[in-house]
Amino acid sequence: MILQALVLVILIILLINAIYLLVFSVAGAITDNATPAASTIAEQQSCLILIPAYKEDTVILKSVEHAMALDYPATKFHCAVIADGFRTETIDAIRGLGAEAFVMPDDDNRNKSKSIQKYLAHCYQEYDNVLVLDGDNCVERDMLIRANAYFNSGTKVLQARRVAKNESNSMSRLDSLSETINNHIFRKGQRALGFSASLIGSGMFMKMSIFRMVMEDMNVFSGFDKELELRILKNRLTINYASDILVYDEKVSSHEVFVNQRRRWTYAQYFFLRKNAINSLKELVFKGNADYFNKVVQFALLPRVLCIVLSTIMIPVAAITGESFLYMSLLIFADVFLAILLSVRNELKWNEVFTLASRIPAVFFGMVKAIVTSGQASKKFIHTPHNAN
How confident is residue 349, by pLDDT bands cut at 50, 70 and 90? Predict the structure, then answer.
C-alpha cells in the first residue's frame, strides 16, 4: 500500500511535467514565429552592448571583435565590457579594439547584477536599447539590423536564439541539444500560446529605460536572468523571441563544469519558486497576470534529464504495482519522449543517438549532485570557465 502510494505520487509529478512539456513542444512545432522584415528606411535605434564578464581573458577579445564588426552605423551603438578580474593587457586590448573597458574593483561578494548596476550608475549617455551578452558570446554581423526591426514593430523586450559555438564532445553536444529544447519549448512554444519567452542571461535586448528600471536594487548571486525576467513579467511586459537572431554560446564540455553550472541554476530556480509561488497565484487570481504565474510554474518543473530517466525507470516499477500504474507510466514516457523528439527533430543526428544516450546516466547523477549541493550557490558567485577554442 505504501509502495503504491509512493509510485502514484511520483507518477502524478511526472505526468504534470510531461503534459506541460508536450503542450508547449507541440505548440512550437506547429507554429512559426513571425519575424518582422528589416527595412533600410526604418529608424535606426541606438544600442548599448553590455558584456559583464569575470576573468574571461581567454575569450573576451573574440567576442569584442564580433561586437565591433556589426553591420550597423558606428554612431548608433556602443560596446562596453564590464571587466572584473581581467589582466591589464586584456583591458588594453579591449580598448584597442574600440570598445569601452569598465574595470570593476575586486569584491569577494561579486555578482552580475552588482556589476551592471555600477556600470549603469557610471553611464550617463542614454541609448534606445540595451543588449546583454556573455564574455564568450559571438554574434552575426546583421544582429542589430534584425533587432532594430523588432523594436520598430513595437517590441520592448527581446530574447535572441542562443546556439552552440562548440560541440567538441558528447557532453557539449548534449548541452547544445538542451539549449535547442529550451529554445523550442520555453521560447518558441511559449510565444505560440501567447506567453512570454524565457530569458537566458545573454542575447537579451530591451529598451534601456526598462533595463534601468528592472535592474534597480537587484542583488542576487545566482539567477540574474530569472530575477530580471520576474521583474519584467510583474510589470506586465511581454518578452518576445527572435529565432532569426543567433548568439553563439560556449557549451560545457566537462562533467565538473556541468555540475557547477547546474548547481547555480538549480539553486536559483527553486529559490525563485519559493519566493514567488504565493505572490504569482495572487497576481493570477486578482490581476489576471498569467504570464508571471506561468513563469513560476516553470520553476516548479523537474530538470528534463530527471524527467527522462525517471519516466524510464518508473515503467518496470509501475509494472509490479498494478496494471493501471503501468499504463500511466507508459503514457508519461511517451509524452516526454515526444516532447523531446519534437524539440530536437531538426538538430539530432540519428547516428549519434546511442553515444549520447550512453552519457545520460552520468548527466542524471551529475544533476542529482547539483540539486543536493545547490545551497553552495546561495552565498557566493560560481563562475563557469570558458575556453579560447
Answer: confident
CA 51 and chain centroid, separation = 16
Average pLDDT over residues 143-165: 95
* Residue 164 three-state SS: strand
Per DSSP, the residues of 278-305 read HHHHHHHHHH--HHHHHHHHHHHSPPHH
**Integer Cα distance of 144 and 350 in angstroms:** 35
DSSP state of 75: G
CA distance 82 to 127: 17
Domain ranges of the chain: 2-31+267-377, 47-253
CB 21 within 8 A of CB 185: yes
Comparing CA positions, the residue from 257, 262, 250, 255 lying closest to residue 359 is 255
Write down the residue that cell numbers 560541440 correspond to: 167
Mean pLDDT rounded to a whole number for the chain: 90
Kindly state the average pLDDT of the residues 190-207. 95
Whether the CB-CB separation of 347 and 29 falls below 8 Å is answered with no
Tell me the C-alpha distance between 333 and 351, whole Å.
22
Domain 47-253: give its CATH architecture. Answer: Alpha-Beta Complex (3.90)
Q: Which residues pair with 204 in a beta bridge?
A: 132, 159
Q: Which amino acid is at 388?
A: A
The model's pTM: 0.91
Mean pLDDT of 278-286: 96
pLDDT-derived band at 38, boundaries 50, 70, 90? low
Our CA angle for 373, 296, 130, nearest 5°, is 95
Instruction: Note the pLDDT of residue 281.
Output: 96
| Residues 317, 281: Cα–Cα separation, whole Å | 35
Torsion sign across C-alpha atoms 64, 67, 68, 74:
negative
Model confidence at 83: pLDDT above 60: yes
C-alpha to C-alpha distance for 292 and 21, rounded to whole angstroms:
18
Note whether 90 and 58 are within 8 A (CB): no
Query: In this structure, what C-alpha cell is assigned to residue 280?
Result: 504569482
**Residue given cell 513571425 in the structure block:** 34
